[in-house]
Amino acid sequence: MPIHPFIITAWARVLDHAQAASDRLYEVCNGLVGRSWLFDNLVSLAQQNVLVKAAVLGGCFIAAWHLQRNDETTRRDRRVLMVTLFAALVVAGTTKSLSNSIFLPRPFVQSQAIYYVQGEHLVESKPLPYRVPLDDYHRKVYQDLKKGDVIQNDLVSFPSDHAGFYFTLALGILLVSRPIGWIAMGWTCIVLLASRVITGQHSPLDVVAGSAIGAAVLLVALFVARLLRWPLDQIAGWTIRHQALATVLVFVAVFEASNTLQDLPPLIETCSAIADHLFKG
Amino acid sequence: MKPTRRSLFSLTAVALASLVCSCHLDRGGMVMVTDPAYRAKLVATHADGLDTPDGILWHEGKLILADEGAGSLRAWGATGGFTTLCDSTTGIHEPEDLVADRQGNVFFTDDGAGGVWEIDHHGRVFLLAGRDQGLPSTEGIALTPSGDILVGDGKRRQVFSVDRAGKVSVFLGRRYGITKTESMVFGEQGELYIADNVDKVVYLLTPRMKLLRLLEKRDGFSPETIWYADEMLYITDSENGKLWRYTPEKGLETIAVFGGSLGHVAGVTTDESGDIFVSIPDLASGMGYIIKLEREQDS
């Protein structure tokens, strides 16, 4: 057998196993819901409530930013945190463009009768099992799905952009401070990301891939930051000299970052419309 | 090296593996059938010679389709495959929508070349009324009970009536406020349905010429092509990847959701047994699909 087809076949087999394992793990996680109204509402809260979703991670970031250490350590920490914010932005763009080019519906959508294109045929897939969480939001989403009300965002789940984004932030905080970092990482993995698997929004593979992309981008960003040490040092020094103003800027950046940049596109659109209105009439 | 840095490198390896495996996970395109009375079947693809189809019409046991990408009008039969009825050598550019009369004459619009074109039952192709008669970019087309052709023009934002001699007159002027007549079809009672995919409205024109806004201001609704059969209005939605049906009793219901490479659902028609055909141009790759939603025998 020629070497290339052999590698491709072997790789495809590995991926099939990985996907099968991910599906099994998803089934176990999703099996937790649909039994307790209280549990399901708490899980849903982690997905729907911005305060629960973003505030803890944002708070950890601000705490790491304001760690009272010596001047040199503070400069180094702030360099890492600034790079983390930048990396999170890149991760958001990377995962978004990847998921737009990879068509893979969310697990809860895959619970329906779906035909996929395979060569010259449409092949009906075996539906994934899905337990519907008992909270109002997920029950409504499932009822809408049964009626065919599916938004396009529910058809592209790989990789998880939330996983990439939050994991990057948590990892950046962990690089600066172990105690605060583990709180951020624990919250990210146990509350933010597990809830997405439990409710069928993402498979474990989506989450692992998103997190890994986040880590990879952060690693590259930190490497590049070493080459740009001088300008970053200047900015870090400026934040130490102007604590109040720097805190305001960091708060705004972290607020938007923790909220996965959801308010940024509408803001840019409005600003663009205002600019058009002012200059073009 | 700190453990965290080691973890970073390990995760980077996983990220690279994820990128490599992403192609394997891609499901390409999907049809999610929400009405259990139907089963989806792929009847023709680019491998059969299809380019990017738009309007389709089931007529006398054959599917006639406007292959917009190839600039041709073609007929498809389950046994004989595709035959070309006319192509760009006749002057057509981007055929859009089509109708046929009982004599087997086919009329179609062309949003690139403009005008109303005819392929008569002998197979002769000619321009019935063109740009010179004020039809620069034609879209929706319908055949009136008297045999005249109604055609919507996207640039002039009006609906025109064209008789068999090619004489053009205004049927619905600008005062009716229709922005783009993407598709038109007559109902059983002589009412005319009009889809406007810019304003996202389906209009109903009563036989007494009263224009009503039948479906409008709905989130996730943008009508592309409409088709009427068995007291039902079928609506494709290329923006949201949906095939709807509308009845006054049940309102708007989703029959199927399309996604990925099958997301841009365009034309729709039905055959005698109630099976639904939809055309799907995949604009990103320049490929096309014809999908049949087969009605289950016991439904």
Please compute the radius of gyration of chain B using only Cα atoms. Answer: 22 Å
Total DSSP E strands of chain B = 25
How much β-strand is present in the residues of chain B? over 45%
Biggest sheet features of chain A: 2 strands, antiparallel
> What sequence of helices (H) and strands (E) makes up the elements of chain B?
HEEEEEEEEEEEEEEEEEEEEEEEEE
| N- to C-terminal distance of chain B | 67 Å
| Fraction of residues in β-strands of chain A | under 5%
- Spatial strand sequence of the major β-sheet of chain B: 1-22-21-20-19
Major beta sheet, strand line-up of chain A: 1-2
Write down the overall mean pLDDT of chain B. 89
Helix content of chain B: under 10%
Major sheet attributes of chain B: 5 strands, antiparallel
Oligomer: heterodimer
Q: State the order of secondary-structure elements of chain A, H for helix, E for strand.
A: HHHHEEHHHHHHH
Principal-axes geometry of chain A comes out as globular
Description:
The complex is a heterodimer of chains A (281) and B (299). Chain A is mainly α. Chain A has helices at residues 3-30, 37-48, 50-65, 71-101, 136-146, 161-176, 178-198, 204-227, 229-241, 243-258, 264-280, and strands spanning 114-118, 121-124. In chain A, a hairpin with a 2-residue loop joins strand 1 and strand 2 (121-124). In chain A, helix 3 packs antiparallel against helix 7 (178-198). Chain A is globular. Chain B is mainly beta and 299 residues long. Chain B is 8% helix and 48% strand. The model of chain B has no long low-confidence stretch (mean pLDDT 89). Chains A and B meet through helix 1, strand 1, strand 2, helix 6 and helix 8 of A and helix 1, strand 1, strand 2 and strand 22 of B. Strand 1 of chain A pairs antiparallel with strand 1 of chain B.
